[in-house]
Amino acid sequence: MRQWGSDRVRPVVGDLAEPALGVDPAWVAEHxxxxxxxxxxxxxxxxxxxxxxxxxxxxxxxxHALALAGALRAGCFHQVSSVxxxxxxxxxxxxxxxxxGQPLPSxxxxxxxxxxxxxREEATVPWRVYRxxxxxxxxxxxxxxxxxxxxxxxxxxxxxxxxxxxxxxxxGIDLGDTxxxxxxxxxxxxxxxxxxxxxxxxxxxxxxxxxxxxxxxLNTFCAAAGAPRFATPVDRTVTAGASGxxxxxxxxxxxxxxxxxxxxxxxxxxxxxxRLGVPPEVLGHTSFAPVFDSRRTEQALAGSGLAVxxxxxxxxxxxxxxxxxxxxxxxxDRKVRAALAGKHVVITGASSGIGRVTALKxxxxxxxxxxxxxxxxxxxxxxxxxxxxxxxAHVFSCDxxxxxxxxxxxxxxxxxxxxxxxxxxxGRSIRRSLRLSQDRFHDFERTMQLNYFxxxxxxxxxxxxxxxxxxxxxxxxxxxxxQTNPPRFSAYVASKAAxxxxxxxxxxxxxxxxxxxTNVHMPLVRTPMIAPTKLYDKFPTxxxxxxxxxxxxxxxDRPHEINTVLGNVGAIAHTVAPKAAFxxxxxxxxxxxxxxxxxxSAGVGGRESEQAMMxxxxxxxxx
Length: 623
Known about the structure:
Blueprint: H1 25-31, E1 37-40, H2 51-72, E2 76-80, E3 91-93, H3 107-122, E4 127-132, E5 134-136, H4 154-163, E6 170-171, E7 177-178, E8 180-182, H5 183-194, E9 203-206, E10 212-213, H6 214-225, E11 230-231, H7 236-243, H8 252-261, H9 263-271, H10 280-283, E12 290-292, H11 295-301, H12 315-326, H13 329-332, H14 334-340, E13 344-348, H15 353-364, E14 368-373, H16 376-388, E15 394-397, H17 403-413, E16 421-424, H18 441-469, E17 472-479, H19 481-484, H20 490-510, E18 515-522, H21 544-557, E19 561-562, H22 565-576, H23 578-591, H24 596-599, H25 608-617
Parallel strand pairs: 1-2, 2-4, 3-12, 4-9, 5-8, 6-11, 13-14, 13-16, 14-15, 16-17, 17-18, 18-19
Antiparallel strand pairs: 7-10
């Protein structure tokens, strides 16, 4: 409510397990006859929940909500049900269907069916029912606050990405069809359908009109994560003819589902995929037997502009939000918690990108992020997010290109209980050839001012505090460019190289005082800093969350530097075969054009096929 800044929201305290939701009878008496719409969404949306919890909250909660709606004489009771009511019905299941004798294979299916039956048979006020498919995050922002459906597989996809090359094909099997819809579509559709006249007593399917093969959905998320994909050498196009001749119970999909749901298979799965974060119960229900007909809903939404977006168009947003907000692997790592819990971590450039995600991960591990950047509003948003999750953060607005402002910041930071880590993340990148920089010496001055002078001014200002503590670790987010020397980055690479060299010299002077440094030679990261260079849209990049994991590792392990394999190869090449290295770099200089902004023109130029080839050959390098 504070974030919305609205005075139109009124909280009403209640409890699903209490009669009439436990709402104060005086409040009910005061507002009886005033409530036009009563939306009932509270339930357990979890395939792993047990029978008792499902019964109490899904069935009992619906009955209590109906009682409250009746006492309030609500204009319409809107029941948000689920396509789970269709159970294992085979074939088409449309909005007019309900009690079709369908098998209901789990407590979740049974209680969703029973709660909808209660609304249909026991409601004393008009009602409408909405049956969403598997609901995922917002198609624009990726935001969601629950882990369900495909999200259960995300930790496994992350492990695949981190340990396997993305080009490696994996063997998959045809797991049938599923149905996924984004939460913003569901919410907007319910809002529209709820206000249509003369539609009481109807049911609406909020689903993708086209069934989505499970393997295709997984591969879509693999692509978004940068993980290897699954190939299905034998799928339904091969088996359809033969399996169609078999009894339904003996068809491959049915047999596989039955085996996975058996007690012995569940026990095995618990000790295998269960350890990777995929609940065995979920594997038994990865696909839908029914095909959900939503023609009535589509007709009702005609003219509203509302339609289910294609999953590929927003899968990256879903993955990014999960990786930055819902992935709890940092907080569960004992080594990370031991290193960061209760420690104050100063993070520059914390308003977006690597800095923001690093702050979220530090807070998840029990640390106290100290957020530093120019934009105070964005820093406050990050602090609010951390505090809503039970953490603590401090905000200091500072222009890190202003040396006097940095001195004032250091005085404020000295008042903290401690300064345990400093992450020099704020930076400015300029991609412009020397040929186009003859009248732009200020590019070099501005880049050095922030990337070098600002960073060392901050560390020097905090040195008295670090010496007094006899401890402290500084992490410099440097660049793979320091090792590979890519053309057109003379200003940027020089500033990062200067910070590297300064840190290496100072480290030998202060190591006896418990003060240490790590230089992270970061590969190309998908951040707002590279967004203006449209050339990078097709480049292989790592995500801000992957970069933040590297920064966290730098704080926990405290190595002298963290490099990539390609960065090390580049550094060795410059030492062993400098002439050959310069020829390769000159080739890149010819292949990749100056940016449109650098040339002052709108064209892109360059040779796209050669650019793509070099980008794949040298992933992570700033070209």
